[in-house]
């Protein structure tokens, strides 16, 4: 065996097969729900072998979390010079992502899957929510440096509360005001000690 043969990498992973897996997982999730779907069904729908799926994912929960996340745009943490300018940017970004038919469907799939399966909930938290929560802390740290918020303000609690407000208003839309106005108003009540921009 030559050196070139020894160093030859294994068969490359197919990007097309990966996309098919994610699409199949989303279709089956919408059709039958998290608990009823299986790796076998995903493989059959995607027309790939189960081993192809298990090369990338250790469990159904991990695959479904990745499939759902593939529908969501990455959240960019803004830096606009003030707390409220940054919060406004985050609210507008969330509105653009969530207030669409696909965005609402994605949120519904996350809530349904997390509520029915604690393993999925933990994987989604570890891989996607916690990193975003940690990134959001930068917004509060900058606000502290500008003395816009109390020094003991908990950025994780702010993120969790903001997420809760957004989800609530998405499921139960405000009757007398827009989603963005409702979220903005609720966050100002939460952060009353922070001056407006």
Question: Strands, helices and their partners?
Answer:
Layout: H1 3-7, H2 15-32, H3 39-46, H4 50-56, H5 60-69, H6 83-98, H7 101-116, H8 118-145, H9 155-171, H10 179-190
Helix pairs in contact: 2-3, 2-5, 5-8, 6-10, 7-8, 8-9, 9-10
Q: Tags for this entry?
A:
disordered N terminus, Tetracycline Repressor, domain 2, mainly alpha, about 200 residues
Average pLDDT, all residues:
87
Percent strand equals: under 5%
Counting helices, strands and paired strands, the structural category is mainly alpha
CATH architecture grouping of the largest domain: Orthogonal Bundle
Radius of gyration equals: 21 Å
CATH topology-level name of the largest domain: Tetracycline Repressor, domain 2
Structure in words:
With 197 residues, the protein is mostly helical. The protein folds into two domains: 3-69, Tetracycline Repressor, domain 2, CATH 1.10.357.10; 83-190, Tetracycline Repressor, domain 2, CATH 1.10.357.10. 70% of the residues lie in helices and 0% in strands. It has helices spanning 3-7, 15-32, 39-46, 50-56, 60-69, 83-98, 101-116, 118-145, 155-171, 179-190. Helix 2 (15-32) crosses helix 3 (39-46), helix 8 (118-145) crosses helix 9 (155-171) and helix 9 runs antiparallel to helix 10. It is elongated, with a radius of gyration of 21 Å.
